[in-house]
Amino acid sequence: MARFLQIAGLVIGLAGLVLQFAISMPASMAAGRGLLGSIVFYFSFFTILTNIAAVLVHASLVSPVGYAWFPAFAGARMRAGVAVSITLVFIVYAAVLARLWQPQGLFLLCDVLLHYVTPVIFVLWWLFAGADGATRWRDISWWMIYPLAYLAYALIRAPFAGEVPYPFLDVSKNGAASVALASLAITALFVGLSVLAVLVDRGIARLRR
Predict the structure, then answer these.
(1) CB 163 within 8 A of CB 32
(2) Which of the chain's termini has less CB crowding within 10 Å, N or C?
(3) b/e map of 150-162 (b: 16 or more CB within 10 Å)?
(4) Which residues contact residue 98 at a Cβ distance below 8 angstroms, ignoring those fewer than 6 apart?
(5) 162: left (phi over 0), alpha (psi -120 to 50) or beta
(6) Could you report the per-residue pLDDT of 134-165, keeping only the tens digit for each?
(7) Residue 132 — very low, low, confident or very high, per pLDDT cuts 50/70/90?
(8) Cβ-based neighbours of 168, under 8 Å, separated by 6 or more
(9) How many domains does the chain have?
């Protein structure tokens, strides 16, 4: 089961990312962005970056070649951190973002793959095989670097690009207080998921012993 989930996560995750890129570029350029701007915008989404990380974790473990290319993604700390981040993707999208737009066709397919299917596959794989009791409480501070760096990037880029990847980060429309409150809430959720991940990781290790 673990091997099946690992391969499924790699194939489906990679397919979702490639398809999303292929259909997003023409739509983004039609909206007025140049080629470079469209590429930057694509990689400005937390969902995309986190799905890339999940694919790299799977790739690093599915074969010796993958490990040789992406050894940093094979470690226990990275596996658990990605599990936390991709769970955040699932929760925030399902609870907040899904109701804000109605994708159709291939956009709907990518929406389902990247926000629902790949997070579920990755977390199930992590529970079956990725969790090994190696995480420590201090790892939470390491995991926090990713969402905080992403938040800083999105907010710093916004006034220069005139756009934000997620509407709750739009200071010009929502105000600084609203954006700060949304950021704090999501950060608190991330911390809560991180604490849960450490507890689950240790619990699974005890059960296996």
Answers:
(1) no
(2) C
(3) bbeebbebbeeee
(4) 115
(5) left
(6) 899 999 999 999 999 999 999 999 999 999 99
(7) confident
(8) 96, 174, 178, 179, 182
(9) 1
| Rounded Cα distance, 37 and 108, in Å | 23
Q: Which two tokens stand for residue 125?
A: 């794989």
Query: Which residues form the domain of 84?
Result: 2-208
Q: What is the DSSP string of 5-63?
A: HHHHHHHHHHHHHHHHHHHHHHHHHHTT--HHHHHHHHTT-HHHHHHHHHHHHHHHHHS
Taking only the tens place, the pLDDT of each residue in 37-71 is 999 999 999 999 999 999 999 999 988 888 888 89
Closest CA to 59 of 79, 43, 40: 79
In whole angstroms, give the CA distance from residue 124 to residue 127: 5
DSSP assignments along 168-179, one per residue: GG-HHHH-HHHH
